[in-house]
User: Fold these one by one.
Assistant:
Number 1:
Amino acid sequence: MSNNNGHHTLPAGEAHDAVLVTGAAGFGGSHLVRSLLKLGYRVTGLDIVPPSHADLLRREMDHPNFRYRWQSLQDIQPGDMDGHSVVAHLAAQADTPLAFESPRYTVMQNVEGTVALLEAVRRGGAVKKFIYSGSGNEYGRPLSLPMDETHPLTPHNPYGFSKAAAELAVWSWHRAYGVPAVALGTGVVIGPHMRREVFIFKWLWNALRGRPIVVEGGQQTRDVSYIDDVVAAWLLAIQAPPEVVVGEKFFVSSGAEHTVAELARWCRDAAGSQAAIERVGYRPGEEGQREAFSTEKARRVLGHVPRVSPKEAVRLTADWVKTLAETRPEEAEPVAIPPQDQAVQVVGPGEVVNVQSV
Ligand SMILES: NC(=O)c1ccc[n+]([C@@H]2O[C@H](COP(=O)([O-])OP(=O)(O)OC[C@H]3O[C@@H](n4cnc5c(N)ncnc54)[C@H](O)[C@@H]3O)[C@@H](O)[C@H]2O)c1
């Protein structure tokens, strides 16, 4: 069934098999859980965040169709798949800066955790779709732009490696055991409840307080999506007939390429701020990085059309950060992590300058 936006819909109140959402307490997972419950799905949300700290699911905890499972991916068992026709796998150590400091931990969570889940899925037998959340970090310097789904995995940092290795595991288990895999790859996803460590959040937060925006590098590019657009694509993939999507990968993005220097200016403007923009050196592996994904396959097969432009996504996210800054300032303070070994040059309001790393 389709609605007049071309999106698949489900009749209200229809009984569905449950969807297992891993990483349910996180940014993307909690948005997906909420949307699935609204559509009438039964949902199991798995995460290592203790229930009492799963703030993003506070209202869902008592929902009759929701069950929270406080458990690590690494300990999931085949029997845990019973009654679930779809696994939406979003759990990950998703912070790139942490991956530089803790690459082994990141690999353990992202690769070993994914393999544990794949083993449970293939031994459990009930799952008709296993959907993997891929990252733009799996591609460092693209061979062509915009990248389409045939582009090879070319990670340039430890986080990208862990996500690419996990994706390779997904396709290996698909080929070896017939795990019904689907991959959805996205660039940067922003919106309400995004992680505080992501650069766009830090820039908006600092700009709102008149503090400098610190840009690591500047000329590398990003393909930015709004969370509602990404969740819409996940819903379409969940609702699509397995024969249409299993074995397929889709990029879900705006399709537009913007330098991070440009994104920094948008953040400052959206915050209505005159904050200075400072440049420090690139993160390892980031110089020369570009990111833009083709939206063609997602549009053709899933019927997914992104509705929010990257600039509008920044503006909508700024609105949320403003609310947060006004109502719960103590919870929103991002950790300041300017690289210790790089020169920082403070310039006047509105200026953007290049500063060489030392
Ligand atoms: N946010 C983005 O910009 C973006 C872009 C592309 C891809 N992704 C991918 O989307 C997914 C969700 O990202 P997010 O931004 O919501 O991150 P997030 O950190 O907010 O959520 C991830 C959740 O996974 C949980 N988790 C981590 N390890 C686990 C384990 N071993 N067992 C159970 N739970 C575990 C965490 O506790 C957290 O709640 C990730 O796979 C990430 O790689 C995110």
Number 2:
Amino acid sequence: MPDDKKFDDTQIGRANVEDTPELLRYYDDLKGKGTGALWTVANKIEPWEPVSQSVPMIWRYADLREDVLRALDLVTPEKAGRRVIYLDNPGRSDVAAAVGWIYAGLQVMNPGENATAHRHSASAIRFIMEGQGAYTVVDGHKMTLGANDFVLTPNGTWHEHAVEPDGSLCIWQDGLDIPFVNAMEANFFEVHPDLSEPVVFPVDDMTKTWGNPGLTPGGGSWTKGYSPLFKYEWDRTYEALHNLSAASDGSPFDSVLMEYVNPVTNGPVMQTLGASMQMLRPGEKTRAHRHTGSYLYQVCKGSGSSVINGQRFDWSERDIFCVPSWAWHEHANGSATEDACLFCLNDLPVIRALGLYREEALGENGGHQPVTG
Ligand SMILES: [Fe+2]
Ligand SMILES: [Fe+2]
């Protein structure tokens, strides 16, 4: 928790210049020439510690689902491009982010519908929330998708999302680094010239080739900056969490957590976006910590609560909540008999690659925040 002396802007080394009529005239002159005096903005642009513009918040599926379904009658995928309700963090509305530099939305599709094939500089993930028969085609690789499956559409790849005609209504979470790529002023978007992405490989070939634990295909080579395993299946992920739980106590802050990785490098699935799945065992409560980076959680199993910067958020299946950079957070499973699982999308690959990762555990109060809201 902040210690007043450590964050004192009156101390030597920080900007602390009082305005005078002469200085104000000087500032005006500088402004007229496209310049400014650093000491007038230094304490703001170089805070003592990260100051996130994002507000900790939760989007409850029970509140949102009906509104997502209303979009089915109001717009077609052809007209909308993608029929998505996006998550608008009030602190980040200017860049359409759910948290930090991460965009997220809920996409809904009827059986037999498909979204126009396209590609973009932004990297994307998709996490299936409900329905049967959804599939995604990425650069000719078709992936069949079920609830809690996690699929990648890496930057620059042609992709198309659809639901089989004999499937059911499907809703999934999209997650992209659009705000980040826009901040880098590097975003391109193209609609596929044929409006559709042809399937040219056997269905689910990337999972069959690259998704075998501890095994890599003979003669297989992959040098792209993203994982060749485009789809991560829920059953295997859940089984892995239980395997780890049987062999380890896990982390005091995250309990039993598995990171989704590129099987070739063991690094993140894509260069800008990372993801993990964690399991809280029955009755488990984690200790609070904070770290740089932005985190968007989806509850894919169970119910419980999280305390974020002193504010308690109760969650249940399919709710989505965010943890802004450097916000204290801790999670608790609300059930004494069932486990709870949290999917997490984050910008850790960027934070780590740029040497900006920093983490701190809460030492006071037994590692738990006082709940103030
Ligand atoms: Fe896309
Ligand atoms: Fe954390």
Number 3:
Amino acid sequence: MQRLRGAPQRLGLTGRGLLVADLNTWAAAGRRAFAYIMDSGVATVEILVLREARPLPTEPVVDQVQAHADGVDFLIAVGGGTITDVVKYVSSGLSVPFIAVPTAPSMDGYTSSVSSMLFGGLKQTLPTCCPVGVYADLDVLSTAPPRLLAAGVGDLVAKYTARADWVLSHVVTGEYDCPQTAAQLLQGVNRLRAQADELGKRTLETVRSVMETLLQAGLAAHWVGSSRPTSGSEHLLAHHWEMRALQTGMDHPLHGDYVGVASVLMTWVYHAVLAGCLPLTVPDKPADSEFRQVYGTAADAVLRARPRVCGAGTVERAAMTRPEWAAGVQAFLPDPDELVSLLEAVQAPIRPRDLGISSLGAAEALRLGPYLRDRLTILSVTEADTAGFPF
Ligand SMILES: [Zn+2]
């Protein structure tokens, strides 16, 4: 945190800045971050503390930040996923740089150049920009509530099915692949799996390992130029549940909680496909009326975003190239139990019901989630449901 002293000069930031935090993150790190930056004596920094108890990356929150950011030369995001994504979005729109001061090891977006936004009730990943500096203080991160570390681990166990979907799409459609970036990221997650027992103790060292792997994941997405290395079918299920939570006004669990649960489910689906228990087939397209019923006002946006990659030709190519992608996936995909052990070690949710999602709600995510973005995943070429899901 002390390194924020003089940071604007070192980063070439001059003029007027705006520091954005919420009530919790202001207390956790914002006040100190502000003091260190002001100590530099060069920059003028204004403060915006959002009053919402748990802000989400929605239009009203963006409007609030935009209204205060008019004419600023740089921004400072002090917070977790929402504040970082919103500041990134606003700073990208204004073409001004921003600094990230993470307050929790809860998600992998601190270093990435995309923002996960909830606009019009639709969860969407938009291209934005990377921070010019990330000041992750271990003392701040390790005093964050334990459930935020659990969410970070949830966002990290997703990297296996994200990589599996990337391998599948590379083989089936020729989509750009970067095996080095993928291998590096999976190595980081494998290291965490090897220290599952230690993770539960939440020592400074384990908090550091989780945070480093989260930062590495964001960088992987930045290097590749899309969220492919970090987000696959499991994120589609998570996005579906996040949208449903917003729609129904239920208490909104953390992004990483949804992602961890979805990763266990999708790892199980992958193993079912690899074992030949789930055939490759064109999934039945849900009727427009179902989209309208489930997504309400966000349905139009979902219907417009419908993927073009699903179809008989894609499934045929997936069947023809099966030995190649199946061998690629088998080389690194753990058993679902191994993900469960890691999630259990940090007391993260594991089953849909741990988040108040029924098996019908889980099946609905498997059916509708693939339509939330134009990205080939295993759910584009098979019809999965939760029958037989052991967790
Ligand atoms: Zn994520």
Number 4:
Amino acid sequence: MLIEWDEKYDTGIKVIDSQHRRLFMLTNQLHESIMDGKSYDTLDKIFQNLIDYTIKHFSDEERLLLIYDYPQYKEHKKGHSDLTKEMRELFIQFKTGALPAASLKVKKFLLTWIIDHILNSDMRYTKYIDIDEIDSKFTDMLLDRII
Ligand SMILES: [Fe+2]
């Protein structure tokens, strides 16, 4: 396993934590498939799943931050688009054969992106969110949409 879930990644916001756990799972799945030398088609599908789910997560997160008038909303959104761009570029390099999936660059990205996203970016907004309210009001609605 490349990255293991730890309670230090818990934001306390149920829907966000559940999406983060899924992102850990998808990241590990991609890494394992690369290490196992899975076929191009399999890697292509898993990589695409990771990108799709990351975009979905970022858009849900941005909705929550808007609801709570997060003061650093713009910066956070910019961080999301930079990360999505980096992920897409790696994917294109992989698809065009410019970058082997088993390269150090891919491994380093997979190892750091979600941890960096949670610890250096998401933890900053947690104090602006009313956790009890968000759980009762929005979790079911968001979970319905994501699962
Ligand atoms: Fe997040």
